[in-house]
Design a protein that fits this description.
This protein is 18% helix and 35% strand. By secondary structure, it is of the alpha/beta class. The chain folds into 2 domains: 51 residues, 2,3-Dihydroxybiphenyl 1,2-Dioxygenase, domain 1 (Roll), CATH 3.10.180.10; 57 residues, 2,3-Dihydroxybiphenyl 1,2-Dioxygenase, domain 1, CATH 3.10.180. The strands form 2 sheets. It has a 4-stranded mixed sheet, with helices on one face. Strands 5-7-6 form a 3-stranded mixed sheet, with no helix packed on it. The radius of gyration is 15 Å and the shape is globular. The mean pLDDT is 91.
């Protein structure tokens, strides 16, 4: 897998969010329509939704069948607190017995779920 594409309403807003929150660099861009961010092993791309969907509000969901998982080398708790202070919806930190990761989920400005995951 080389790239994950999400269809979104506001490409610029999500680009700004992921750059500011996770320091992702732009690989390619068509202003307001398309952006590809360097997210490590897999590129994260945002494609503006089709014309027939542009007058609708983005679906804000509390449940999603997909999740963007971001591996954090260190400082998960600090990053979570920073995101919370910036108004980003973040869920509680969790850990599962026998699984060597600290994790927490959050939502980007369009309701896409992301997970911060830090190995012990």
């Amino acid at each position: 897998m080389s790239r994950l594409i999400l269809y979104v309403h506001d490409v610029s807003r999500l680009k700004t969010f992921y750059q500011a929150s996770f320091s992702f660099k732009v690989r390619e861009e068509i202003e307001g329509e398309w952006v590809v961010l360097d997210a490590g092993a897999v590129e994260l791309a945002f494609h503006r939704v089709g014309v027939q969907y542009r007058d609708r509000e983005p679906a804000q969901q509390s449940h999603s069948n997909s999740k963007i998982v971001l591996s954090i080398r260190s400082g998960l708790l600090e990053l979570r607190n920073k995101l919370l202070a910036e108004g980003v919806p973040m869920r509680d930190v969790k850990r599962y017995e026998g699984f060597p990761y600290l994790m927490c989920d959050g939502e980007d400005p369009e309701g896409n779920v992301f997970q911060l995951m830090e190995m012990d």
